Amino acid sequence: MNAFLQSRTRAAFSWLAAAALLSACHAVPAVVTHQGIMAADSVRIAADVILPPVVPDGGVPVVFIQTRYWRSFHLRGGTRNNTVPMGPREAIVEKLVTAGFAVVVTDVRGTGASGGEWPWPWSEGEVRDMGPVIDWIVAQRWSNGAVGATGVSYEGTTALLAAGAGRPALRAVLARELEWNLVDEIIAPGNVRNVGFVSSWSRSVDALDHGRFPELFPRLARLGIRGVQPIDDDSTGVLLTSLQQRRPPTDVAGSVVAVRRGSDRFGRSGPPADSLGPAGHAAALAATSAVVGIWGSWWDGATADAVLRAVEQMPIREAVIGPWAHEGTSNASPLRRDDSERATVDLDAVVAFFRRHLVERNAPAVPRMSWYVAGTEAWTSAERWPVTAPRTLYLVGEQLVSTAAASAPRSLTVDFSASTGKNTRWTTGLARPVDAPDRSDARGVISWQSAALEAPLSVFGAPEFVCRVALDAPEAALHVYVESVDRSGRVRLLTEGVQRIGAGQATVRIRPVAFELPAGWSLRLSVAGADAPSFERVPAAGAQRMQFAGEGCRLTVPVVR
What we know:
The chain is of the alpha/beta class.
């Protein structure tokens, strides 16, 4: 299965090369222009305007996407005429245009072929541009005045932030796979820097901003792609080249090297890091008039946290937490089977969302909440999340038990090469799958295991680990893993948490999850002091030994009633 997922990921990029070299044997007809939209400060925002072949006199609804990953590609063999342009989100654009929507895709300011500066993600200028872009769309003769916004990852955040722009014409937003709290959910979960993802992403966006291919692009794709598509007024690309040459380095990794809390500044002169994402715009988002849908995954970084937090802080019409990897094209459930219920993103469902909220006046209601359950490998839908009750399991000896008792402390000499692997929830944002290896012989951990379950165990939400810990060094990174053990002894990682701790009482919030283990299986708790290469080493140098108290240590899980 892992080899299959890896091959799917390679294939996801290989199509870029194949399509470029074959010119487009499968292309959706469209009327396409590459325009410049003037922002309030006269910065020109590059936009692809993609219309259905026939637009009625009254215009059509429009969905817009704001990206920092090149809105479309400039092909070496020449532009594809009268078809949807090739780009990172070509698939959803094709679906929308085929369904009769117009689509506008912009490069956010300071990226792609747009002017201005990109000092950090979702800067004040970038967010301020969203309102004028919506106004421009509404004013076009091909627009009927109904606008939607969508996107995945960075683009999902821009879509959600557009809901706070105060534009009634923006009637529907579908944001997928994003972060609500930038620091806790991606930069430094539990105050421990996510160096693997941030370093790779930093290098990639710096390359894109300066007209180079990022490391995610396969060599074959580079044969057919020149770079980002210039606007039509810059057919030779001279203005684009000048923009790229004048841009300073995009050093995201350097800007967040000291960021471990939401209040820490993004770079020396930047704002508090958590002010940059949706959390920093919560008041505006809470006042939105748009119908908002938000999708995440239990195993794509902390995007499930983003969904749960958004539901608490703003009006959300449709919330979905699925089992997919970041791009939505592969199943990331650790308990996946050949008969797993639909476990990838259906782009037709994205189109259906906009049909319900931009086109149909009396669309039938859909369940407000939908979530996938590992183990049953099936979906559940309801008007609210399930009701749960906390169940506490105590660490006694090498067991998880329901009654507290004293036992000898347990020690862990930290192995700084300990790892959950290279294809994990924290790296899937780099277009990787999420592996599900057997962890029965995982290195660098100590574990506590429950007796075989007498009845199924159904969990929904965020578990918590509490324990008194003694350390040899002043600080440690405490990685906590909640795992399943099947009847054959195979161990799978269900969810995890990490926290920078000092000596004393340690509390680790574990990422939310939904799973159901059958009778006869067991629950296992494992701890480690490192997860390389994803997370920073704590301490930065020297040895570390962690001792876990023999009494009072506990795992609390939210059990579905």
